[in-house]
Design brief:
This protein is an all-alpha fold and about 240 residues long. The chain is built from 14 helices and no strands. The model has no long low-confidence stretch (mean pLDDT about 90).
């Protein structure tokens, strides 16, 4: 029942879970080479996730036209959403904005509240990237509330860093200090690895002393994006890359 492509795909996923990303990339490339085309979009999404863990996400754009939103809306949402997130991370929010309506329709059609919440988060990222800071702040605050309600500490930490960047870029250091106080609950919650918690404590301590900077916050956000794939990754390693 399991053909070669499925076996290689499963092996790639297992290597990812083990933090063996180079091996995972080798397996998924073998799966793509063996695929006759039926699974190409899904395989490319997996490859994009592996490359993201390694700091490279360019393959997502290649995957988008290969996933039919009509027959596989879940994968289509994942591919398109992550692609727009990556554009925002790369300072290309203006390029991301035209794709928001389609991704929003897919998120709404999923019927999942967290998909809609993440869509608001993406809209906030795009708004921040093009300078609509008040709009972005409203979006990030809404997402914060939803993630707190669902007890998702890792996602809460990420959106809190987005909010902290907004405040720091506007010189609103007292609000960054207050934000650090709001983040206290994540340190007693489950779902964040030890290394990531240590990095977040460093940020919160700096914020309480009005010493948090834009560079520190950006480094931490990039680190957390990678650490969700590699829980043993140390923050110092990301800063020194």
């Amino acid at each position: 029942m399991l053909n070669e492509v499925w076996v290689l795909w499963i092996e790639a996923d297992l290597r990812c879970d083990q933090g063996r990303f180079a091996d995972a990339l080798e397996r998924i490339n073998e799966a793509i080479a063996a695929d006759r085309g039926d699974l190409r979009g899904k395989l490319l999404l997996t490859k994009a996730q592996i490359l993201e863990a390694l700091g490279d996400t360019a393959v997502l754009e290649e995957a988008i036209p290969l996933v039919d939103a009509g027959s596989d809306s879940r994968t289509a949402l994942g591919v398109r959403f992550q692609f727009l997130v990556n554009l925002c991370r790369e300072g290309r929010a203006a390029e991301a904005e035209p794709g928001l309506p389609q991704v929003g329709t897919l998120a709404e059609g999923s019927g999942k509240r967290l998909d809609r919440t993440k869509m608001v988060w993406l809209e906030g990222k795009a708004a921040a990237g093009v300078g609509r800071l008040a709009e972005a702040e409203v979006s990030f605050r809404q997402v914060q509330r939803d993630f707190r309600e669902h007890e998702l500490p890792y996602d809460y930490a990420l959106v809190s860093l987005d909010l902290a960047l907004l405040f720091l870029e506007q010189g609103r250091t007292p609000e960054v200090r207050a934000l650090a106080g709001e983040m206290v609950w994540i340190f007693s919650a489950e779902g964040i690895a030890r290394e990531a918690l240590a990095a977040l404590r460093l940020f919160c301590e700096a914020a309480r002393k009005d010493a948090a900077t834009v560079d520190l916050t950006r480094h931490l956000a990039r680190y957390l994006d990678r650490a969700c794939y590699d829980p043993e990754l140390r923050f110092e390693a990301e800063v020194n890359r």
